[in-house]
Design goal:
- Helices cover about 55% and strands about 0% of the residues.
- The protein is mainly alpha-helical and about 200 residues long.
- Helix 3 packs across helix 4, helix 5 crosses helix 9 and helix 7 crosses helix 9.
- The radius of gyration is 42 Å and the shape is rod-shaped.
Amino acid sequence: MDKTLPARPAGGPQNSLWFVGTWFGASITTVIFSFVFMFYLAQVKTVNTVNQNFKLYTALPTSEIVTSESIDLGDARAKIIENFLKDYSSPLSNLASNFVTVADQYHLDYRLLPAIAMQESNGGKKVIQDSNNPFGYGIYGGLVIRFSSWERAIERVGKALREDYLNQGLKTPGQIMTKYTPPSVAKGGSWAIGVSTFMEELR
Protein backbone atom coordinates (compact mmCIF):
# COMPACT_ATOMS: atom_id res chain seq x y z
CA MET A 1 0.00 0.00 0.00
CA ASP A 2 1.32 3.30 -1.03
CA LYS A 3 1.81 5.48 2.07
CA THR A 4 2.14 9.11 0.98
CA LEU A 5 2.08 12.06 3.39
CA PRO A 6 -0.96 14.34 3.19
CA ALA A 7 -0.45 17.72 1.49
CA ARG A 8 0.06 20.76 3.71
CA PRO A 9 -2.82 23.21 3.89
CA ALA A 10 -2.50 26.38 1.81
CA GLY A 11 -2.43 28.59 4.88
CA GLY A 12 0.56 27.06 6.53
CA PRO A 13 3.14 28.58 8.89
CA GLN A 14 4.88 30.52 6.11
CA ASN A 15 1.72 32.41 5.22
CA SER A 16 1.04 33.13 8.89
CA LEU A 17 4.52 34.57 9.32
CA TRP A 18 4.06 36.72 6.24
CA PHE A 19 0.72 38.04 7.56
CA VAL A 20 2.18 38.87 10.99
CA GLY A 21 5.17 40.60 9.44
CA THR A 22 2.99 42.64 7.13
CA TRP A 23 0.64 43.65 9.94
CA PHE A 24 3.54 44.63 12.21
CA GLY A 25 5.17 46.71 9.49
CA ALA A 26 1.92 48.50 8.68
CA SER A 27 1.34 49.23 12.37
CA ILE A 28 4.83 50.68 12.84
CA THR A 29 4.38 52.83 9.71
CA THR A 30 1.01 54.11 10.97
CA VAL A 31 2.44 55.01 14.39
CA ILE A 32 5.40 56.86 12.86
CA PHE A 33 3.13 58.73 10.47
CA SER A 34 0.80 59.71 13.33
CA PHE A 35 3.67 61.15 15.38
CA VAL A 36 5.00 63.09 12.39
CA PHE A 37 1.53 64.48 11.59
CA MET A 38 0.89 65.54 15.22
CA PHE A 39 4.29 67.23 15.34
CA TYR A 40 3.44 69.11 12.15
CA LEU A 41 0.09 70.30 13.52
CA ALA A 42 1.71 71.47 16.75
CA GLN A 43 4.03 73.88 14.95
CA VAL A 44 3.17 77.64 15.14
CA LYS A 45 2.10 78.92 11.74
CA THR A 46 2.31 82.53 10.55
CA VAL A 47 0.04 83.98 7.91
CA ASN A 48 1.51 86.34 5.39
CA THR A 49 -1.15 88.96 4.55
CA VAL A 50 0.93 90.91 2.04
CA ASN A 51 -0.95 91.63 -1.19
CA GLN A 52 -4.19 90.12 0.11
CA ASN A 53 -7.57 91.75 -0.21
CA PHE A 54 -8.75 91.06 3.33
CA LYS A 55 -7.75 92.04 6.86
CA LEU A 56 -6.81 89.21 9.14
CA TYR A 57 -7.81 91.06 12.32
CA THR A 58 -10.91 92.94 11.19
CA ALA A 59 -12.27 93.07 14.77
CA LEU A 60 -9.40 95.22 16.03
CA PRO A 61 -9.87 99.03 16.11
CA THR A 62 -8.37 100.99 13.27
CA SER A 63 -5.39 103.25 13.79
CA GLU A 64 -7.65 106.29 13.41
CA ILE A 65 -9.80 105.17 16.34
CA VAL A 66 -6.78 104.49 18.53
CA THR A 67 -5.37 107.91 17.72
CA SER A 68 -8.65 109.68 18.55
CA GLU A 69 -8.70 107.99 21.95
CA SER A 70 -5.23 109.33 22.79
CA ILE A 71 -6.39 112.65 24.24
CA ASP A 72 -4.59 115.15 26.41
CA LEU A 73 -6.00 117.07 29.36
CA GLY A 74 -7.34 119.89 27.19
CA ASP A 75 -9.27 117.48 25.01
CA ALA A 76 -10.59 115.67 28.06
CA ARG A 77 -11.96 118.90 29.52
CA ALA A 78 -13.55 119.83 26.22
CA LYS A 79 -15.21 116.42 26.04
CA ILE A 80 -16.50 116.77 29.60
CA ILE A 81 -18.05 120.14 28.77
CA GLU A 82 -19.46 118.87 25.47
CA ASN A 83 -21.13 115.86 27.09
CA PHE A 84 -22.45 118.01 29.95
CA LEU A 85 -24.04 120.55 27.59
CA LYS A 86 -25.40 117.85 25.30
CA ASP A 87 -27.14 116.27 28.28
CA TYR A 88 -29.05 119.54 28.66
CA SER A 89 -29.58 119.92 24.87
CA SER A 90 -27.61 123.16 24.98
CA PRO A 91 -26.87 124.96 21.69
CA LEU A 92 -23.42 125.69 23.16
CA SER A 93 -22.32 122.05 23.15
CA ASN A 94 -20.32 122.42 19.93
CA LEU A 95 -18.30 125.26 21.51
CA ALA A 96 -16.73 123.13 24.25
CA SER A 97 -13.21 123.77 22.96
CA ASN A 98 -13.88 127.54 23.08
CA PHE A 99 -14.73 127.28 26.76
CA VAL A 100 -11.44 125.47 27.43
CA THR A 101 -9.38 127.89 25.34
CA VAL A 102 -10.80 130.94 27.12
CA ALA A 103 -10.42 129.30 30.53
CA ASP A 104 -6.74 128.66 29.84
CA GLN A 105 -6.24 132.14 28.39
CA TYR A 106 -7.59 133.87 31.49
CA HIS A 107 -6.63 131.22 34.04
CA LEU A 108 -10.19 130.31 34.98
CA ASP A 109 -11.64 127.08 36.30
CA TYR A 110 -12.77 125.49 33.02
CA ARG A 111 -16.15 124.69 34.60
CA LEU A 112 -17.03 128.25 35.61
CA LEU A 113 -18.28 129.68 32.30
CA PRO A 114 -20.42 126.64 31.33
CA ALA A 115 -21.89 126.58 34.84
CA ILE A 116 -22.82 130.29 34.70
CA ALA A 117 -24.37 129.76 31.24
CA MET A 118 -26.48 126.94 32.64
CA GLN A 119 -27.59 128.99 35.65
CA GLU A 120 -28.41 132.12 33.64
CA SER A 121 -29.95 130.74 30.44
CA ASN A 122 -30.25 126.96 30.68
CA GLY A 123 -27.15 126.68 28.55
CA GLY A 124 -28.16 129.28 25.98
CA LYS A 125 -31.72 128.02 25.46
CA LYS A 126 -33.32 131.05 27.13
CA VAL A 127 -31.62 134.23 25.98
CA ILE A 128 -32.79 137.67 24.94
CA GLN A 129 -33.33 137.66 21.18
CA ASP A 130 -30.24 138.45 19.11
CA SER A 131 -28.13 138.99 22.23
CA ASN A 132 -25.93 135.87 22.01
CA ASN A 133 -25.57 136.40 25.75
CA PRO A 134 -26.07 133.06 27.56
CA PHE A 135 -24.32 134.36 30.69
CA GLY A 136 -26.79 137.08 31.62
CA TYR A 137 -23.76 139.35 31.69
CA GLY A 138 -24.53 143.06 31.84
CA ILE A 139 -28.30 142.57 31.71
CA TYR A 140 -30.10 144.80 34.17
CA GLY A 141 -33.67 145.77 33.41
CA GLY A 142 -33.63 147.46 30.01
CA LEU A 143 -29.85 147.30 29.74
CA VAL A 144 -28.74 144.40 27.57
CA ILE A 145 -25.19 143.73 26.48
CA ARG A 146 -25.20 141.95 23.14
CA PHE A 147 -22.49 139.97 21.43
CA SER A 148 -21.93 139.25 17.76
CA SER A 149 -21.64 135.50 18.40
CA TRP A 150 -21.56 132.83 21.10
CA GLU A 151 -17.79 132.68 20.68
CA ARG A 152 -17.44 136.41 21.30
CA ALA A 153 -19.61 136.14 24.41
CA ILE A 154 -17.46 133.34 25.84
CA GLU A 155 -14.26 135.30 25.27
CA ARG A 156 -15.61 138.63 26.56
CA VAL A 157 -17.21 137.24 29.72
CA GLY A 158 -14.15 135.08 30.42
CA LYS A 159 -11.97 138.18 30.28
CA ALA A 160 -14.37 140.11 32.52
CA LEU A 161 -14.42 137.32 35.11
CA ARG A 162 -10.63 137.44 35.31
CA GLU A 163 -10.18 141.22 35.36
CA ASP A 164 -13.26 142.38 37.28
CA TYR A 165 -13.84 139.47 39.63
CA LEU A 166 -11.00 137.02 40.27
CA ASN A 167 -8.31 139.71 40.18
CA GLN A 168 -10.41 141.63 42.71
CA GLY A 169 -10.49 138.69 45.11
CA LEU A 170 -13.93 137.40 44.10
CA LYS A 171 -13.07 133.79 43.38
CA THR A 172 -15.86 131.52 44.60
CA PRO A 173 -19.39 131.48 43.14
CA GLY A 174 -20.64 133.00 46.39
CA GLN A 175 -18.16 135.88 46.14
CA ILE A 176 -18.72 136.40 42.41
CA MET A 177 -22.48 136.54 43.01
CA THR A 178 -22.19 139.67 45.20
CA LYS A 179 -21.10 141.68 42.15
CA TYR A 180 -22.39 139.63 39.23
CA THR A 181 -25.99 139.41 40.44
CA PRO A 182 -26.45 141.20 43.80
CA PRO A 183 -30.23 140.51 44.04
CA SER A 184 -29.45 136.80 44.44
CA VAL A 185 -27.73 137.51 47.77
CA ALA A 186 -31.01 138.62 49.33
CA LYS A 187 -32.70 135.50 47.93
CA GLY A 188 -30.49 133.14 49.87
CA GLY A 189 -27.70 132.84 47.34
CA SER A 190 -29.63 130.75 44.83
CA TRP A 191 -27.36 131.89 41.98
CA ALA A 192 -24.19 130.72 43.73
CA ILE A 193 -25.86 127.46 44.73
CA GLY A 194 -26.91 126.81 41.14
CA VAL A 195 -23.48 127.63 39.69
CA SER A 196 -21.74 125.47 42.30
CA THR A 197 -24.09 122.57 41.57
CA PHE A 198 -23.40 122.72 37.83
CA MET A 199 -19.65 122.93 38.48
CA GLU A 200 -19.87 119.76 40.54
CA GLU A 201 -21.65 118.03 37.65
CA LEU A 202 -18.72 118.97 35.43
CA ARG A 203 -16.14 117.10 37.52
